[in-house]
Design goal:
The chain is an alpha+beta fold and 724 residues long. The protein contains twelve helices and 44 strands. It has four domains: 281 residues, Alpha/Beta hydrolase fold, catalytic domain (Rossmann fold), CATH 3.40.50; 146 residues, TolB, C-terminal domain (Neuraminidase, 6 Propeller); 116 residues, no CATH class; 115 residues, 7 Propeller (Methylamine Dehydrogenase, Chain H), CATH 2.130.10. Helices cover 17% and strands 34% of the residues. A hairpin with a 6-residue loop joins strand 8 and strand 9. Helix 1 runs antiparallel to helix 5 and helix 1 crosses helix 12. The protein is globular, with a radius of gyration of 25 Å.
């Protein structure tokens, strides 16, 4: 096991030169134009069965947003599809369903943003502006495939003869060679029905982005049908353009009706059989698939305390229980599970106190303290997965019967990967930045090659964090000082820069965009502290579920403990000048900090904060707080709404007016409450912006606006703390 180092910078920046002021000044524009340094980073890897070829997507450079399809073989990269050559350089005409898919995935690239391959990785299909395209990886140019309309999520059959896709909310199939025309396998019976698409809560909160799955025989498919007619409507308008009508979306707020989701077995000839399970007791379809042992589903109860794995009879649609997980708080969904090995051994997680284990065939195969994060794939009886020995790092592991578990990634970082045919692609965030390695038979591939290049820009501001374990609970944290600061040179105002909520860690040993932003704020004269408190992942089930019934106070207490412990260790932190900023859950946490702990926090910027937990979606919010009719006290305790009169500190609320995840109503209603209570505050609306603003100028200047607000809002150094 690896043990945490309590106080040292990441190796590449341990002796880094100070960041020049000019570079710091230009950083916001770089941050925006690189789409948070995501452009140019290779992603979405597929390995061929023989392990010789790797497919992936990468944009043309760190400034180019257009995704291209590539193949890596024998140490060389080969361009398979370039959208500029296929459809020209004009603007995209993206179907609404594809726009929503990208929004759920927070994908800000264009061009080839996703693809799917057949079982041999010889045929690859993708959509460009709704047009269906295919390319063969053994040579030849990409070619268009006739489709019934704008295509979304195209996927070839395992044998490569057919392509299925969604168009007009219906599922279609066509032959790859275009012969025989196409067929509509499932037609939407009304405007609220769709086939083959993931519903909102599946894509946003469950991690299920797909809505159909091919059978290995390429003759049948398992298809999700979604009926959103029971779901409440929301109307998203653009106040900056009052001539545009509002957009109507279906959004299931906590305690309200969900979409009705059913599953169907469909043949390529159009025959259909509905899958039967107790949907009244298990209304969530969290995962599905079809392997050599047949189709299967994972279904979850509304209270999320029971998760069942069901085997599906491909002839009748009848289901049989194969596994059940229960938990008195909630059953955590682990990506890639359930799954089955070639012999049929079920691969699932098992929680036991402080550890989330990997279980194969009913037996735990990982030791105590190794936290399962994701199952990446199964080949034969071997299972590829990610796990954390220490929460600041995530590594790729392989389990094989008789050999046990072996760690494949070695360097510090947050690693993931995929593997097949004796080849593993390891990709991750390291202290140096993004890195992708191709490993063959347990050793780096011979040169030339062994790595797939990242074309991402190097940040103008280099994070140089101190990694810390703070307070009684050993909260993992990072502390960023200005590059020119020397200990004892003077007191610095403190800026907490957390997310602090479920599903996301920031204090990790891997350079990401959040660390670059934290360092930029440090270059503006702050000591910036990033802490992952209770409720964040990577430290086991008990740590995650410490927020059950209360998403505010444990998270807030850990931020308070972290800043006090950091100040006790580093005398240059000025606790009379403490600010906090954050987005989404981090925005909620920032606003809660100045509301409830004005003795500690003196100013806050809250971006897209969910101020009223009842307005958030069913699956995400009921997981932590239960049903609002059964546990109204959980929602009252965990909401900012109703507590606005407590505000005594400067607070800026920032929100995109087109946010379909955390609706702008959260901020507008809370602002009205603050105004009614006579509490001054600032509201910055972002016209046209969704939950992740896309406009480059907005993203660049939003950093400066926050900096200037916090500088002005904090008390002067000589004044000390401001009274309540």
């Amino acid at each position: 096991m690896h043990h945490p180092t309590h106080h040292r910078p990441d190796d590449p920046t341990e002796h880094a030169a100070p960041t020049p002021a000019a570079d710091s000044d230009a950083f916001p524009e770089q941050f925006a134009r690189t789409r948070r340094f995501s452009l140019g980073v290779p992603r979405q890897f597929t390995v061929s069965p023989d392990g010789r070829r790797v497919l992936f997507v990468r944009t043309g450079s760190g400034r180019d947003p257009v995704g291209r399809l590539w193949q890596y073989q024998d140490g060389r990269e080969h361009l398979l599809a370039d959208p500029a050559r296929l459809v020209g350089p004009g603007p995209e005409d993206v179907p609404e369903e594809e726009r929503l898919r990208r929004e759920r995935a927070r994908d800000r690239s264009t061009g080839v943003t996703g693809y799917a391959a057949d079982a041999a990785a010889r045929v690859v299909v993708f959509a460009l502006s709704g047009a269906l395209w295919a390319v063969r990886t053994d040579g030849g140019a990409p070619f268009p495939v006739p489709a019934a309309g704008p295509a979304v999520d195209p996927r070839p059959s395992p044998d490569g003869r057919y392509v299925a896709y969604v168009s007009g909310r219906g599922l279609h199939v066509t032959r790859l060679d275009g012969s025989g025309g196409g067929r509509q396998l499932a037609r939407a019976e009304g405007p609220d029905v769709s086939y083959g698409l993931a519903e909102f809560v599946a894509a946003e909160s469950m991690g299920r982005s797909r809505g159909y799955w091919w059978a290995p025989d390429s003759r049948r498919l398992l298809v999700a049908r979604v009926d959103t007619s029971p779901v409440a409507r929301r109307h998203l308008s653009d106040p900056a353009d009052p001539s545009r009508p509002p957009r109507v979306i279906r959004y299931p707020s906590a305690g309200t009706a969900n979409a009705e989701v059913t599953a169907h077995l469909v043949t390529v000839d159009g025959d259909r059989t509905e899958v039967a399970w107790d949907r009244a007791a298990y209304e969530y379809l969290t995962a599905a698939g079809w392997d050599a042992h047949g189709p299967y589903l994972a279904v979850q109860s509304r209270d999320q305390r029971v998760l069942r794995t069901l085997a599906v009879d491909p002839a009748t649609g009848a289901t049989a229980l194969r596994h059940e997980r229960t938990d008195p708080a909630w059953v955590e969904l682990v990506p890639g599970t359930p799954a089955r090995t070639a012999a049929g051994a079920l691969v699932v997680p098992e929680d036991d106190g402080g550890t989330r284990h990997l279980a194969v065939g009913g037996r735990r195969v990982t030791p105590a303290g190794l936290q399962l994060r994701e199952v990446l794939g199964i080949e034969g009886e071997r299972v590829l997965f990610t796990a954390s020995e220490e929460p600041e790092e995530t590594h790729v592991w392989r389990y094989a019967p008789g050999a046990g578990c072996r760690r494949l990634s070695s360097d510090p970082g947050v690693w993931t990967g995929t593997g097949r045919g004796g080849t593993t692609v390891l990709t991750g965030r390291t202290p140096h930045g993004p890195e992708t390695r191709v490993v063959r038979d347990g050793a780096p591939a011979p040169q030339p090659g062994g790595a797939i290049a990242s074309l991402a820009e190097e940040p103008l501001v280099t994070p140089r964090p101190l990694h810390l374990s703070l307070g009684e609970r050993q909260v993992r944290a990072q502390l960023h000082f200005p590059s020119g600061h020397r200990p004892g040179a003077g007191k610095l105002p403190v800026l907490l820069d957390p997310y602090g909520g479920p599903g996301t860690q920031l204090a990790v040993r891997g350079r990401g965009w959040t660390g670059c932003v934290s360092q930029w704020f440090a270059e503006q004269g702050f000591a910036v502290l990033v802490a992952d408190g209770r409720g964040t992942p990577g430290r086991g089930p008990a740590w995650e579920k410490a927020v059950h019934g209360d998403q505010l106070w444990p998270a807030l207490e850990d931020q308070v403990d972290a800043v006090r412990a950091a100040a006790a260790r580093f005398g240059d932190l000025d606790l009379s000048r403490v600010a906090i900023r954050g987005w989404s859950f981090g925005g909620f946490l920032a606003a809660a900090a100045v509301l409830h702990r004005p003795d500690v926090f003196h100013a806050a910027v809250a971006g897209a904060p969910p101020t009223d937990q009842r307005l958030y979606d069913t699956h995400w919010k009921e997981r932590f707080l239960g049903h609002p009719e059964e546990h109204p006290e959980h929602y009252a305790r965990s909401s900012l709404a109703g507590h606005g009169a407590l505000l005594r500190r400067p607070l800026m609320l920032v929100h995109g007016l087109a946010d379909d995840n955390v609706a702008v109503a959260h901020t507008l209603r809370f602002s009205a409450e603050l105004l009614a209570a006579g509490r001054p505050h600032t509201v910055l609306p972002l016209p046209g912006a969704t939950h992740l603003p896309a406009d480059d100028a907005v993203n660049a200047n939003l950093l400066r606006v926050q900096r200037d607000f916090l500088r002005d809002a904090l008390p002067a150094p000589q004044d000390g703390p401001v009274g309540p």
